[in-house]
């Protein structure tokens, strides 16, 4: 029997010993005082170890290849002109492959990349579901349902090991009130020891700017830009992949127990940050959503990039890290998430790169997605400028973009390790992560500002359907619809008063994204929404019953009511979100009784005419709508009639 995967006292002692050893090793042999405990931070030693297999910074293989070329010339010189000519050709090829450097890489590295690119599959139809996409990006991988830390969860099984995926934050929560700063994945990683197999953590952060690229330079985008100054993300997500690597002496059951123990420990270590393991269906769906697979066309890799669904993508790996003592450098990841792309994915991998590896290293991979090559080029230039300003560099993974896609999905699979037994040139030490800021939250639809001038943000679009009820009338509904369009949403309006919507529809329509207006009772085929192209259905047809039918994710239904009557109580009690403009006394009493608001219900009659109450889970937030000049011209005052 093996010891329990995580013995806290043994772990603390091991961590202290390992910390002292690593400190001396990074210092190039200089000794530091013994650490007093596992909780202390390692000294930030900036000295770099000399990579194995190099002489004067040049790889041994390059010296050997040069010597082979020289020997070939000598043999040719003593065997006549024909042999000399053949030897000269061989020497030229060898020296060119060995010493020619293109775009920061040796020619022999490009040759290896080209051979790997030619040997693998480059396209797959994803019409059969996300399992096909998973098999494309990680061949031989399967997802199984099991129990982790006492709850049903998915386990990703492949030749590297076993992994689980934790969703960080509360993706089903509708009010984005706090920005949570995650601890460094290097601090969450357990120290190496014989009581558990080698472990690896991968943090994946996804962000989409607001206004979105889909909104272009139209009216919704210009208005939302005035509202937020580009400070907020329209969509954000954070996931943590937890992996145990296969190693000698560890059976499949041992790995599962170790993974369960590691997940349980991480849930405790994450503390106030909500975290939950994903189930089998949710894990498959996350892989599809993070790859931006919208079901349109195949997933295809080309030498300069990727095409998944309707988006063109490119991947990059950080080569030189910035100086994280500088405040702007510490915010590097959050600044990447606001790049002018349809979406940016940043993945931080921490841990050994193989089961036999002894170094704990980190690698950072970035994936940019855009509607077309021109937009992708703009986003790429913005990324390079951002890195250059911080004296950092990244390598575009031409010929390796499928590997880059795999590295930016929450699978925990180590990036291409390069030459076995040698330090990877794009890997940094784990202590570099200590000061890196990793925020999550603060993404969604801006409803308005609170009394402190801070934005009140609602996650109207999320992995599950959102049912919202607005008590206030058409102008406020149009304000919400316009802001949703700035996030890239398609809007469908079902109304019995089309004349009230016609001027708004004409003024707010984005080229290629007309607002659909349909009469009550007409059945319409509406494509489902996605994370980057959600769907908003506005129902403005009078009193309606509560909608209890299951709905797809990334879709919101907004029921509009001019007045609140007893017929609306059931719909209000079942709604996920209520937006309430100033109410009359009898309306406030009905709303308070339906939602159990208590004394807070009386304030619904006393707020200003340009304010709304945002109600979720019996919590009420007050927001000034902060109407922009564009919204005022298009909609007029968003007050109750």
Structural notes for this entry:
By secondary structure, the protein is an alpha+beta fold. The chain is 31% helix and 25% strand. It is built from 18 helices and 30 strands. Strands 5, 6, 7, 8, 10, 11, 12, 13, 14, 15, 16, 17, 18 and 19 form a 14-stranded antiparallel beta sheet that branches. An eight-stranded mixed beta sheet has the order 25-24-26-27-23-28-29-30. It has a two-stranded antiparallel sheet with strand order 1-2. Helix 5 (130-137) crosses helix 9 (280-290) and helix 7 packs across helix 14. Residues 1-53 and 417-423 have low confidence and may be disordered.
Write the layout of secondary structure elements.
Blueprint lengths: L7 H19 L27 E2 L2 E2 H18 L3 H19 L1 E2 L2 E2 H13 L3 E2 L5 H8 L4 E7 L2 E7 L3 E8 L11 E2 L3 H4 L10 E11 L9 H10 L4 E13 L6 H18 L5 E3 L2 H11 L8 E4 L2 E4 L2 E10 L6 H4 L1 H5 L6 E9 L9 E10 L2 H17 L3 E4 L4 H7 L20 E2 L9 E2 L4 E5 L5 E4 L7 E6 L2 H13 L3 E6 L2 H11 L7 E3 L16 E6 L14 E7 L7 H6 L2 E4 L4 H11 L15 E6 L2 E6 L4 H7 L6
Helix pairs in contact: 2-3, 5-9, 7-14
Shape: elongated
Query: Strand fraction band?
Result: 15-25%
Mean pLDDT: 82
Beta-strand segment tally: 30
Helix content: 25-40%
Brief account:
This protein is of the alpha+beta class and 641 residues long. Helix content is 31%, strand content 25%.
Give descriptors for this structure.
18 helices; eight-stranded mixed β-sheet; 641 residues; disordered N terminus; 14-stranded antiparallel β-sheet; alpha+beta
